[in-house]
């Protein structure tokens, strides 16, 4: 083959690939465009993200700046307060050191000893303050507790008023002693006044109704020229049934109009009885003075008809049958449940010894339902009929129990060899009557206040019967 032909043949195959380079170039250009598009999009996204990040960074820097300014101001204030408080603390420490050194020099004790003493004193003072505060709070708590439990002072006063109503306005059966004579008394030269009364005997019920109507022209026994009269009504010789009218204040012509009934009194027995009207002048702080009396032997009147008449009062014969009088005070504190009895004195006691004197002492007992709960006694006063004691005794009596108890005050003649013999007795409380019941009601109506009063001693045998009825 000729050389030219070979070169042409070789040239032809090299010229054939030329058409394929054009699509590759197009692909490359498309690829470059796509890459440029992606890069531009990515650059846009990156730019937006960078803007957001820049905004966040700026906000964060602002917050940090605010926090730093706040911290800086707080630090400045703390430094200022520290700089102001440090000198005060240093001054206090310096004063303490100086005081400690001065005390150590004057007492000759080491500094640590002085410091120990100061600490001990501080602890003691703190302990005292703590104790006082605790005691105050405890008292306050106790007071509040008691208030919640409800010992109402008004209820105490109402109880006292109820006792007074029982004593004063209504008719009341009494067991008090009264003076008596073996024979009818003769009329005294001095006019003692007169008494109007009415008697009605019921044969069906065997009862005698006695009405005390009025009195007039009574003598003035008080400083003001008047009297405070009341009337005791009883039968002789037994004296078991005794009644008393209410007291009329500051009058010499009292109008009573009160009726008392002696029940279970057969007509045959009534003929052996003597009806006694004894008029007294009431005195809160001393013995009640008897103005006079009227004695009516029932055998001398006709009980078949109603009897109404006036009779003159006659004086009473000597006081030989009296047992004496005693003065004591009562004080009750409902919130604490405390009853205080102060035995003050006694006078005109009955002569018990051969020498015409006595050795008296006083026994005080709290009784309930016939049982003696507590008892106390005074000292013995030798060879006297007018002893002075002024001795105080306290009993724990809750308010719920004060209405159920009896206070028994007994004057006893001491005998070293034989048995000590009671001279007379007073009963107050739930079984009290007359002046004893008045004293008790006054005590309850005036809580926390001591109420003093004189009492006439009663026959121990009669009071024994009363105490037996408590069971």
From TrEMBL:
<dbReference type="Pfam" id="PF00168">
    <property type="entry name" value="C2"/>
</dbReference>
<dbReference type="GO" id="GO:0005886">
    <property type="term" value="C:plasma membrane"/>
</dbReference>
<comment type="similarity">
    <text>Belongs to the synaptotagmin family.</text>
</comment>
<feature type="region of interest" description="Disordered">
    <location>
        <begin position="169"/>
        <end position="188"/>
    </location>
</feature>
<keyword id="KW-0968">Cytoplasmic vesicle</keyword>
<dbReference type="GO" id="GO:0048488">
    <property type="term" value="P:synaptic vesicle endocytosis"/>
</dbReference>
<feature type="region of interest" description="Disordered">
    <location>
        <begin position="63"/>
        <end position="83"/>
    </location>
</feature>
<dbReference type="GO" id="GO:0030276">
    <property type="term" value="F:clathrin binding"/>
</dbReference>
<feature type="region of interest" description="Disordered">
    <location>
        <begin position="1"/>
        <end position="48"/>
    </location>
</feature>
<feature type="compositionally biased region" description="Low complexity">
    <location>
        <begin position="68"/>
        <end position="83"/>
    </location>
</feature>
<dbReference type="InterPro" id="IPR000008">
    <property type="entry name" value="C2_dom"/>
</dbReference>
<dbReference type="GO" id="GO:0007626">
    <property type="term" value="P:locomotory behavior"/>
</dbReference>
<feature type="compositionally biased region" description="Basic and acidic residues">
    <location>
        <begin position="30"/>
        <end position="48"/>
    </location>
</feature>
<dbReference type="GO" id="GO:0005544">
    <property type="term" value="F:calcium-dependent phospholipid binding"/>
</dbReference>
<dbReference type="InterPro" id="IPR001565">
    <property type="entry name" value="Synaptotagmin"/>
</dbReference>
<keyword id="KW-0812">Transmembrane</keyword>
<feature type="domain" description="C2">
    <location>
        <begin position="191"/>
        <end position="311"/>
    </location>
</feature>
<keyword id="KW-0770">Synapse</keyword>
<protein>
    <submittedName>
        <fullName>Synaptotagmin 1 isoform X7</fullName>
    </submittedName>
</protein>
<keyword id="KW-0106">Calcium</keyword>
<dbReference type="GO" id="GO:0000149">
    <property type="term" value="F:SNARE binding"/>
</dbReference>
<keyword id="KW-0677">Repeat</keyword>
<dbReference type="GO" id="GO:0030672">
    <property type="term" value="C:synaptic vesicle membrane"/>
</dbReference>
<dbReference type="GO" id="GO:0001786">
    <property type="term" value="F:phosphatidylserine binding"/>
</dbReference>
<dbReference type="InterPro" id="IPR035892">
    <property type="entry name" value="C2_domain_sf"/>
</dbReference>
<feature type="compositionally biased region" description="Low complexity">
    <location>
        <begin position="17"/>
        <end position="26"/>
    </location>
</feature>
<dbReference type="GO" id="GO:0031045">
    <property type="term" value="C:dense core granule"/>
</dbReference>
<dbReference type="GO" id="GO:0048791">
    <property type="term" value="P:calcium ion-regulated exocytosis of neurotransmitter"/>
</dbReference>
<keyword id="KW-0472">Membrane</keyword>
<dbReference type="GO" id="GO:0030424">
    <property type="term" value="C:axon"/>
</dbReference>
<feature type="domain" description="C2">
    <location>
        <begin position="322"/>
        <end position="455"/>
    </location>
</feature>
<dbReference type="GO" id="GO:0005509">
    <property type="term" value="F:calcium ion binding"/>
</dbReference>
<feature type="compositionally biased region" description="Acidic residues">
    <location>
        <begin position="170"/>
        <end position="186"/>
    </location>
</feature>
<keyword id="KW-1133">Transmembrane helix</keyword>
<feature type="transmembrane region" description="Helical">
    <location>
        <begin position="112"/>
        <end position="133"/>
    </location>
</feature>
<keyword id="KW-0479">Metal-binding</keyword>
């Amino acid at each position: 083959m000729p050389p030219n032909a070979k070169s042409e043949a070789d040239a032809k195959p090299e010229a054939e690939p030329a058409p394929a380079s054009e699509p590759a170039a197009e692909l490359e250009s498309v690829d470059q465009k796509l890459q440029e598009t992606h890069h531009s999009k990515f650059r846009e996204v990156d730019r937006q993200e960078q803007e957001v990040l820049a905004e966040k960074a700026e906000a964060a820097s602002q917050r940090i700046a605010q926090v730093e300014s706040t911290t800086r101001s707080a630090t400045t204030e703390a430094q200022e307060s520290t700089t102001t408080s440090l000198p005060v603390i240093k001054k206090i420490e310096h004063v303490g050191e100086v005081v400690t050194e001065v005390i150590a020099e004057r007492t000759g004790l080491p500094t640590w000893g002085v410091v120990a003493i100061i600490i001990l004193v501080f602890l003691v003072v703190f302990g005292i303050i703590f104790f006082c505060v605790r005691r105050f709070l405890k008292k306050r708590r106790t007071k509040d507790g008691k208030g919640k439990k409800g010992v109402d002072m008004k209820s105490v006063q109402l109880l006292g008023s109820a006792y007074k109503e029982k004593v004063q306005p209504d008719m009341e059966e009494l067991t008090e002693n009264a003076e008596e004579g073996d024979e009818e008394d003769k009329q005294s030269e001095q006019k003692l006044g007169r008494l109007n009364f009415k008697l009605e005997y019921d044969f069906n019920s065997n009862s005698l109704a006695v009405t005390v109507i009025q009195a007039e022209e009574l003598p003035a026994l008080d400083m003001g020229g008047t009297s405070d009269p009341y009337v005791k009504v009883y039968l002789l010789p037994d004296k078991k049934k005794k009644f008393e009218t209410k007291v009329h204040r500051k009058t010499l012509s009292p109008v009573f109009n009160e009726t008392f009934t002696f029940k279970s009194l057969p007509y045959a027995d009534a003929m052996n009885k003597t009806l006694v009207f004894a008029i007294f002048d009431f005195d809160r702080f001393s013995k009640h003075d008897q103005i006079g009396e009227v004695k009516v032997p029932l055998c001398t009147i006709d009980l078949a008809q109603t009897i109404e008449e006036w009779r003159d009062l006659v004086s009473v014969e000597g006081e030989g049958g009296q047992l004496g009088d005693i003065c004591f005070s009562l004080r009750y504190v409902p919130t604490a449940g405390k009853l205080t009895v102060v035995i003050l004195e006694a006078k005109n006691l009955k002569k018990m010894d051969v020498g015409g004197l006595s050795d008296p002492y006083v026994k005080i007992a709290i009784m309930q339902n016939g049982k003696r709960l507590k008892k106390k006694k005074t000292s013995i006063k030798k060879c006297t009929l007018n002893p002075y004691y002024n001795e105080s005794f306290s009993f724990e009596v809750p308010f719920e129990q004060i209405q159920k108890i009896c206070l028994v005050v007994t004057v006893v003649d001491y005998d070293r060899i034989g048995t000590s013999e009671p001279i007379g007795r007073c009963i107050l409380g739930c079984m009290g009557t007359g002046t004893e019941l008045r004293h008790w009601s006054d005590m309850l109506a005036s809580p926390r206040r001591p109420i003093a009063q004189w009492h006439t001693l009663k026959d121990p045998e009669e009071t024994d019967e009363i105490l037996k009825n408590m069971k």
